[in-house]
Design a protein that fits this description.
By secondary structure, this protein is α+β, with helices and mostly antiparallel strands. The chain contains ten helices and 19 strands. Strands 2-1-10-5-6 form a five-stranded mixed β-sheet. Strands 3, 4, 7, 8 and 9 form a five-stranded antiparallel β-sheet that branches. Strands 12-19-18-14-15 form a five-stranded mixed β-sheet, with no helix packed on it. Helix 1 crosses helix 4, helix 4 runs antiparallel to helix 5 and helix 6 packs antiparallel against helix 7. The protein binds the ligand Nc1nc2c(c(=O)[nH]1)N[C@H]1C(S)=C(S)[C@@H](COP(=O)(O)O)O[C@H]1N2 and molybdenum atom. The site of the ligand Nc1nc2c(c(=O)[nH]1)N[C@H]1C(S)=C(S)[C@@H](COP(=O)(O)O)O[C@H]1N2 has 18 residues, from loops. Molybdenum atom (MO) binds next to loops.
Length: about 525
C-alpha cells in the first residue's frame, strides 16, 4: 500500500501529539506548574553552559524561552515520526524510543526545583497514551501489511487499499481532534487556576495574624511530627479531580432553610467582619490507628455561631447541610456550629489565605469533628435543616452521621521497624482528643506496665499534644504501644475498630530493635 510510507510516521506524529495533549491536560488539571515539554526546555536552559545561554538570550532577546520550547517541540515531533516509522518493523523498537523520550522528560521534571513524585504523573500518562495511541493507529496498517504478505504468497490481489486508508484516516482524524480538544480544555483549566492563584497571592487579609507556636506546645524531640503542620505538608482529602478555582470576587455563601432570615454574604463582607483565630487539629475519619491523615494549623476566620444567630435558626433544626462549589456535601450537627467551640468559616491557614487545594477562598473548620462531616472546602451553601431529612456524600456511602473525633495517639519515634541504639533513648509522638483535650499519655514497652510520658501544653484543647519519654533499651527486639487519657478522665480504648463507619480505635503498637 502506497500510503504506508507516510502513514507510519504520520501515525507516530498523531500518537505523539495525543500523548502531549493528555500529559498537558493532566499537568493543568493537577495544577502542576508546566507541562513536560516546558520542563525539557527549562532543563535545556539549565544544562546549557552559561556563556552559550547568555549568547542565545542576546541573539533571541526575550523570545528565548518560547523559541526553545518550539525547538524542543519540533525535535520531539521528529522523534515521534521516527518512532512511527520504526513501528512498521517492530513495535518494541518504537516503544523503546518513546520510553527513552519519557525518561528524558521524567528526568527534566525531576531535576526541577521543588518537584515530587506526583509531578511525574503527566509524564507517565503521556507515555501510556503514546503506546496505546500508536497501537490503535497502526492497527489498520498492520492488518493491511499482513494481508499484502498473504496476497503476495497466493498471487491474488484481493485487499482493498482504500478501505485501509479510510480506517486509518478516520482513526488519525478522531485522535487528532480529541488531542486538540483536550489541549484546549487543559489550557482553560490551567488558566482559571493560575488566575485564582494570582488573586490569592495578592490578597491581603487585615484580620489575619501570623502563627506563633506556643513554646510549651513543643516537646523538642527530633522525629516527632512538627506541632504546627506546614500547609504544603498538610494531608489533603477530597473527591474532586480538579480542585475548584474560585475568585474571591465570585464567591458568596447562602445560609437558608429553617431560618428566620436568609443570609447571603460575599467574600468582602465576610473578611470585613471580626476574625476568630485558633489552633485546630483537623483529622480524617479514614485515618487508621498510627496513620498520618491529621494536621494542626492556625486557622483564621469568622465565627459561624454569629452568622447563624443573624439568620435566626428556627426550633426543630438539628443539622446544617453544607454544599461545596464542587457539589460535595456534608451534614454537620447544628449544635457544633453554634456552641462555644468557635466553629469558623476559615479564610486563612497558618497566616496565609487558604491554599486552593485546602478550600480557597472559604472553608468550614469545626473543632472536634472529623473532616467528612464538617470541614467543607470551597463552601458555598448552608441549609439549616434536620438530620432526618437529609443525606450527604459520605453518609450515603455508609459512614456515620455525626462524626465526633475519637481520642487517639501515635508513636513517631522510633518508627516501626527502626533500629536504634541500645541503652538510654528518647521515644515520642503525638496525641489528640480535640475539644476534650489530652490530660495524659502513657506508653508500654515490651508488654510491661503503662508508664507516664511527658506531654506538651499547647494551651488549647482543640489541638494535639506532643509526648516524649526516656526509655532504657536492652539489645534486641522490642515492642511499644501508646495510649492517651482525655481531660474528662476517659482512657483511650484498646478495642480495635476499623475506620468504617465512624473512625478507628485501638492502641498504636510498633516493633523495633536496639543494637549495641
Ligand atoms: N468540598 C469538599 N470538602 C471536603 C472534602 C471533600 O471531598 N470535598 N473532604 C472532607 C474530608 S473527608 C476531610 S478529612 C477534610 C480534609 O481537609 P484537607 O484536605 O484540607 O486536609 O476535608 C473535608 N472537606
Ligand atoms: Mo476525611
Amino acid at each position: 500500500m502506497r500510503t504506508n510510507r507516510y502513514a507510519w510516521p504520520l501515525a507516530g506524529l498523531v500518537a505523539g501529539g495525543a500523548g502531549l495533549a493528555t500529559s498537558y491536560f493532566v499537568a493543568m488539571a493537577l495544577s502542576i506548574r508546566e507541562s513536560p515539554v516546558v520542563a525539557i526546555a527549562e532543563a535545556v536552559i539549565r544544562l546549557t553552559p552559561g556563556a552559550l545561554a547568555e549568547k542565545a538570550v542576546q541573539t533571541l532577546g526575550h523570545h528565548d524561552k518560547p523559541f526553545l520550547v518550539a525547538v524542543v517541540l519540533v525535535l520531539t515531533c521528529l522523534v515521534f515520526a521516527w518512532a512511527g516509522r520504526l513501528a512498521a518493523r517492530s513495535s518494541w523498537a518504537s516503544g523503546a524510543v518513546l520510553a527513552v523520550l519519557a525518561v528524558l522528560a521524567g528526568a527534566a521534571v525531576a531535576t526541577r526545583h521543588g518537584t515530587g513524585l506526583s509531578d511525574q504523573v503527566p509524564v507517565v500518562v503521556g507515555f501510556v497514551t503514546w503506546l496505546v495511541a500508536l497501537s490503535v493507529l497502526t492497527e489498520p496498517l498492520r492488518r493491511a501489511a499482513a494481508r499484502t504478505a498473504v496476497d503476495t504468497g497466493t498471487g491474488q490481489t484481493s485487499y482493498d487499499g482504500s478501505q485501509t486508508r479510510r480506517a486509518f484516516v478516520l482513526r488519525a482524524g478522531t485522535m487528532a481532534a480529541l488531542a486538540v480538544t483536550l489541549g484546549v480544555v487543559g489550557r482553560v483549566v490551567g488558566r482559571g487556576r493560575r488566575q485564582v492563584e494570582q488573586a490569592r497571592s495578592l490578597l491581603r487579609l487585615a484580620g489575619v495574624t501570623q502563627p506563633l507556636v506556643p513554646a510549651k506546645a513543643r516537646i523538642g524531640l527530633d522525629g516527632v511530627s512538627p506541632w504546627m503542620t506546614p500547609a504544603d505538608g498538610f494531608y489533603r482529602i477530597d473527591t474532586s479531580i480538579v480542585a475548584p478555582a474560585i475568585q474571591p470576587s465570585d464567591w458568596q455563601l447562602r445560609i437558608h432553610g429553617l431560618v428566620d432570615r436568609e443570609v447571603v454574604i460575599t467574600f468582602d463582607e465576610l473578611v470585613a467582619r471580626k476574625f476568630t483565630e485558633d489552633w485546630i487539629t483537623l483529622n480524617c475519619v479514614s485515618n487508621p490507628v498510627g496513620g498520618d491523615l491529621i494536621g494542626n494549623a492556625w486557622w483564621s476566620g469568622v465565627r459561624l455561631a454569629d452568622l447563624l444567630a443573624e439568620a435566626g435558626v428556627q426550633a426543630g433544626a438539628d443539622a446544617v447541610l453544607q454544599t461545596s462549589d464542587d457539589g460535595w456535601t456534608c451534614g454537620t450537627p447544628l449544635s457544633a456550629l453554634t456552641d462555644a467551640r468557635d466553629a469558623i468559616l476559615a479564610v486563612a491557614m497558618n497566616g496565609k489565605p487558604l491554599p486552593i487545594d485546602h478550600g480557597f477562598p472559604v472553608r468550614t473548620v469545626v473543632p472536634g469533628l472529623y473532616g467528612y462531616v464538617s470541614a467543607c472546602k470551597w463552601v458555598v451553601d448552608m441549609e439549616v435543616t434536620r438530620f432526618a431529612k437529609i443525606s450527604a456524600f459520605w453518609t450515603e456511602r455508609g459512614w456515620g452521621e455525626k462524626g465526633p473525633v475519637k481520642m487517639s495517639s501515635r508513636i513517631d519515634v522510633p518508627r516501626s521497624g527502626d533500629q536504634v541504639a541500645a541503652g538510654s533513648g528518647r521515644v515520642g509522638g503525638v496525641a489528640w482528643a480535640q475539644h476534650s483535650g489530652i490530660s495524659a499519655v502513657e506508653y508500654a514497652l515490651d508488654g510491661g506496665d503503662w508508664q507516664p510520658a511527658e506531654i506538651s501544653s499547647p494551651g488549647t484543647d482543640d489541638a494535639w499534644v506532643q509526648w516524649a519519654a526516656t526509655v532504657d533499651l536492652d539489645q534486641g527486639d522490642h515492642t511499644m504501644r501508646v495510649r492517651a487519657t482525655d481531660k474528662t478522665g476517659l482512657v483511650q480504648t484498646g478495642v480495635e475498630r476499623d475506620v468504617l463507619p465512624d473512625g478507628s480505635t485501638g492502641w498504636h503498637t510498633i516493633g523495633f530493635s536496639a543494637k549495641a
